[in-house]
Fold these 2 entries.
Entry 1:
Amino acid sequence: MKDIVIVSPHQDDEIISCFEIIKTAPKNVFIVYNPTGEEIRKQEALKLKSEFSQIKSQFFMNEIPAALLDTNNTLYFPCKDDTHPAHIQAYFKGYDLWLNHGMDVVFYSTEMNVHYKHEVKDWIEKRKLLNHIYSSQSRLWEMEAKYYLFEARIKYMK
């Protein structure tokens, strides 16, 4: 079984897009966040580890730690359809790792305006978790249920 590495440009992207992946992960989950951002959201993100025993480490850095760039791991990156500049930048890193380095990469969307989205089975649990961990951002999903009702992931084929 593979370890999972989630590249999350913003603290909360990991739950918005990969809640089901984290929840059902049979092995270790590592999350790599962009180091910039509000300090409160960084502190909120660290609470996530206490919610899931699968989360082994959370990193705040610009690059994925070399030890996690293992072909035995599955990497999750934002997709090209997300419009935020930090997501687009992360997408190109993921695309390069998939295309040129043979890594197992899955792309996710935080915007949910893509044709490959699906309904989250445990959306009530996901919403509660978002409110518990990222209370500073709760107005976002109060106004847009898509953040807890749906997830979208796609894997490119060569």
Note: The helical segments are 13-24, 39-46, 48-51, 85-101, 123-133, 138-143, 146-149.
Entry 2:
Amino acid sequence: MATRPRLVLASASPRRAALLAQAGIIPDAIVTPDVDETSKQDELPRDYAQRLACDKAMAVVAAHEAALILAADTVVACGRRILPKAETNNQVKNGLKLLSGRRHRVLTALALIAQGGAPRTRIVMTHVAFKRLSEGEIFNYLASGEGLGKAGGYAIQGHAEAFVRQINGSYSNVVGLPLFETVSLLTSAGYVIS
């Protein structure tokens, strides 16, 4: 019987590790990749997400050449505009005001490197529609602190789920890792989920 390859998750996101565990996948190692997440001028959301996922995987491959390296990047986009990972309450507030009463896209790019080869990628897109948010709802969400460190300034798995009028596509993608596509990508590379 062939042995299962080691799996390294190249991510600083505890949500990604929790989602993998939910699917019965426990990485052998979790490594925080050191990459510049600044978008390039006129870079489209899809291209940005894919570039970052590949950069994250490539950043850790040298130290784990014999392993499967899984990386992902999630982007919230409103039209061609990429909403940043909110680092301040002001960024959370601006993100929520922009998304209020509108549809937006959540794109997650996956990159998987097997034994030092080229990254294999997938991109998953989910459409999310927010209700129109009141100033009070935005204020209360800011007070929760949930939006800090999140793409677009919100976490769908928390209080912001009450803002979602409609979702079309993968829910786990909006959380940060599309499970169906991730499991498919891993199994196609020989990773056996027990």
Note: The first strand starts at residue 7 and ends at 10.
